[in-house]
Amino acid sequence: MGIAGTIPPELGNLSFLVWLNVRNNSFHGHLPTELSRLHRLKYINLASNDFEGKFPSWLGCLSALWYINFEYNRFSGSLSGRLSNLTKLEVIGLDGNFFTGSLSEEFRALPKLRVLDIQHNQLVGPLPQALFNLSSLQRIAFTNNSLSGYLPARICDYLPQLQGLYLSLNNIEGEIPSGIGECSRLQVLSLSYNKFGGYIPREIWNLTTLIGLYLGGNDLTVDSGKQGRLLRD
Asked: Which of 118, 148, 178 is the last residue of a domain?
């Protein structure tokens, strides 16, 4: 069960605090706005509690933050306009909440972002094209939302570090772009249960670092000139 209760507003008085980790406890309620005074904070991990409310806008005041993990709480509302000031962010973990609405293009303001996990929420709308211009990204994970639209044709041109692309259980359509074969470090490609159609691009077979391939639940055809075993979720 761990520690129960709410976060005391007096925590905001710890002006030299750099690291805050209260994961795997039984905290609940809203985060106090007094935490906006923690200007030296670089790391905040609130995962696996029972916090609620909107993603706090005052996080934008904490310009030193490089790590945010709010996974498996009860946060809700839109994320639009909430991240653009956090230019040092490298890791965002928001899995297992109730975030809604569409994603904006503000990701272009996060040049150091390596890990973006917003799985198991209620996001809608197209994937922001700005995501595919962040050369530092290693992991993009939006499994189990209601995202739509298409993957860009030259998806890997600006993602040289990409190791994991997790988009299963959404409404993404069109063909899987042949440009996926340019992601030379890709280890997991998870696109199952979307609305993809057409042929599986033969360039996928060039991904020699791939250890997980999930394409089931789409309307795809294997090129008769190639043989492959597709792993299913």
From this structure: 148
Domain hosting residue 214, numbered range: 159-233
59-118 pLDDT, tens digit each: 989 999 999 999 999 999 999 877 888 899 999 999 999 999 998 888 888 999 999 999
pLDDT, the chain, mean: 93
Q: Are residues 114 and 200 in the same domain?
A: no
Contact 205, 176 (CB under 8 A): no
CA distances, 155 to each of 110, 127, 162, 216 (Å):
18, 12, 10, 21
Look at residues 131, 130, 122 and name the one whose alpha carbon lies nearest to residue 171: 122
For residue 191, being part of any structural domain is answered with yes
CB 173 within 8 A of CB 151: no
